[in-house]
Amino acid sequence: MKWVTNALSLGLVATSVLAAPLDNRQDDGGLDLYQLQVTSKNKQIDGRYLALNGSDLGLYDGDDTGPIKVYQTDSKKEGCKELHTYPIGIVDHSLGLVGPPALLTFVDMVNPDGADPGNGAVAMWDTFRVEDGKVTNDAEGQWLAFPDVKKSWKVKWSDGSSPTIDDYMPVEVAYVSAGQGRYVGK
Ligand SMILES: *[C@@H]1O[C@H](CO)[C@@H](O)[C@H](O)[C@H]1NC(C)=O
Questions:
Q1: Where does the secretion signal sit in this chain (predicted)?
Q2: Which residue has a Cα nearest atom 9 of ligand 1?
Q3: Closest ligand 1 atom to 60 CA
Q4: Is 162 exposed, middle or buried (0-12, 13-18, 19+ CB in 10 A)?
């Protein structure tokens, strides 16, 4: 009986391994997809992939839908890129940086063009730099990760002027190839 159980679970593993390449082939259409991986000296967060919980990008142990996939398009701003989430839906989802200018939260924005976060906050979504394997913002500053509930971390862009908060970690955000997707309706 024990042998049967083992064989069955092996069978299940084999099936799910096979499913991934088939899905990719179906979706092949020349759109390069990426996942965003955090690198840090902190072993708790190094190598983990950015995911969404609600509209906040971060590192989560649960409640999220797995690593996000993005594709890049040219921004109207010289040398900058926009990062849109994949799969492409009816409304555009773009990664954005929102909040008080000193410490911007990394979020998923719906139809970001013309978005006004109000209260003196800014919303940036067309100023990403995607170079040398890394994603940064086209402004002075750096990525910081802040511990959150349930061993989660939120990722923010700091221009260095925010009040000192002790428990953040400087991190880098790397982009890692995640296969090909396709444009829909474009
Ligand atoms: C996800 O967001 C919800 C609502 O803000 C929160 O209650 C929950 O703790 C978050 N989960 C994680 C893993 O951070």
A1: 1-19
A2: 149
A3: 13
A4: middle
